[in-house]
Amino acid sequence: MRICIIAEGSYPYVTGGVSSWIQNIAMQMPEHEFIIYAIAAQKKQQGKFKYKLPENVIEVKEVFLDSYLEEDSKWGKRFRLDAEQKNNVKALLSGEGTLDWPSFIRMLRSSKFNQVSDFLTSFDFFDILEEVCREKYPLVPFTEMFWTVRSMILPLFITIRDNMPEADLYHSVSTGYAGVMGVVAKEIYNKPFLLTEHGIYSREREEEIIKADWVKGYFKDLWIQYFYQISGCAYKLSDQVTTLFGRNKEIEIELGCEAEKITIIPNGVRITDYENLPSEKPADQYYIGAIVRVVPIKDIKTMLQSFSLIKQELPNAIFYVMGPYEEDESYYYECMQLVDSLQLQDVLFTGSVNIKDFIGKMDLLMLTSISEGQPLAILEGMAAGKPFVATNVGSCKELIEGVNDGIGSAGFIVPVMHYEQMAQAAITLCKQEKLRREMGKNAYERVKNHYRQDDVIANYRRLYSEIGGELLGRDRIRA
């Protein structure tokens, strides 16, 4: 079977998390061919892959959301949209009414437009936007609204018009642009579309926009409702949905996904990969680590503030931040400034490394994210028998404390951004070796019993066979 995995802002440009998950799916299913449809923010990322692609990945189709900058539009055309087409555009811009996505996709992909930027400078678009402004944003200057909306929806429009590779099954690993392109592929080829959500895309975009300096206050709601709108496209039109844990399923149902088509498949790790790791370190030092990308959603600054308090209590503590920092260089620079302002010693940003060379030496691991799904970083650390201090996001509490599984706690859960509680929990683990070892043992037992990579592969192998095979009665590209 030929499977097209649609990824946004992750594989193969970024390591860890969702990217590692995709790499494992492809590597451990050599019986299938995979196409990667990779959506990235900027064209400067082209070809800069962080993974050695498995042999059964036969193509990587790269799409860049900033490609609209290359379009030179012509102003003032009239395309004579029909009533349904106008209503679809208005629903997208206003967040109200019913948006018929298949009809909308057909309109954007039609030969009516030489390029979609022409539509956004047409009289038709001006009329629709003016109506939305009059009804919902009467106090916002029209010029500001026009350029904001244009920058917001142009990447979506251009992506929808892109040529999708043909496959037997399309598997998007998020909603958002990736989810919409799964629907586009389903519309073009009449092939099944599987959606997997690790984190809740629309909620994560909402958190980012609320904090963003580049979005003016009165446009924040506009951006937020836009991301909820495009996420709803994938929920409505996917054939099946998988997610990682129960709370994710509940949120997806709240956001409009049919409960009957959602299956929970947790993440997993291969326990044997974390046996007999290097563990030698100075006996008089405490090694605290974080397996994490240095980006705002991981809230590295809270981690550093926490370590500042830990260092006051435990001067011989050393903190390892294990993960890439090139993804958001400005944020990494802010973190380094914070290290200087706190006058912190013994903080090491390792960059991209083989974590197996490090985590065996750690006394404990930390995670301070403000949003998560079911973090592979925690599962990897637990497989190595390490206790965690983590924020109460995603399934972190479920991983650390379990769900009536008879296994004790594998660490401490603290509120988001609460660096004092995080520091105290870490100090407790450092000072109490017996507790630390007991929680590390619990971590290992929970992963061994409930989060095995072999189970993940078996579940997706079955799903691929069911929805991409003969059960849906579709013609297939190849057996």
Characterization of the model:
The chain has 479 residues and is an alpha/beta fold. It contains 17 helices and 13 strands. The strands form 2 sheets. The chain has a 7-stranded parallel beta sheet. A 6-stranded parallel beta sheet has the order 10-9-8-11-12-13, sandwiched between helices. Helix 2 (83-94) packs across helix 3 and helix 11 packs across helix 15 (419-431).
Please sum up the structure shown:
The chain is an alpha/beta fold and 479 residues long. The protein has helices at residues 17-27, 83-94, 101-109, 116-119, 123-136, 142-160, 176-189, 201-211, 217-237, 246-254, 300-313, 329-341, 376-383, 396-401, 419-431, 433-450, 453-468; strands at residues 2-8, 33-40, 57-64, 169-172, 193-197, 240-243, 262-264, 286-291, 317-322, 347-351, 364-367, 388-391, 411-414. It contains 17 helices and 13 strands.
Q: What composes the largest sheet?
A: 7 strands, parallel
Mean model confidence by pLDDT: 92
Low-confidence stretches: 470-479
Order of strands across the biggest sheet?
3-2-1-4-5-6-7
The CATH architecture category of the largest domain equals: 3-Layer(aba) Sandwich
Fraction of helical residues: 40-55%
The percentage of residues in β strands lies in 5-15%
Number of strands: 13
Descriptive key words:
single chain; globular; 44% helix; 13 strands; Rossmann fold; seven-stranded parallel β-sheet; alpha/beta; 14% strand; 479 residues
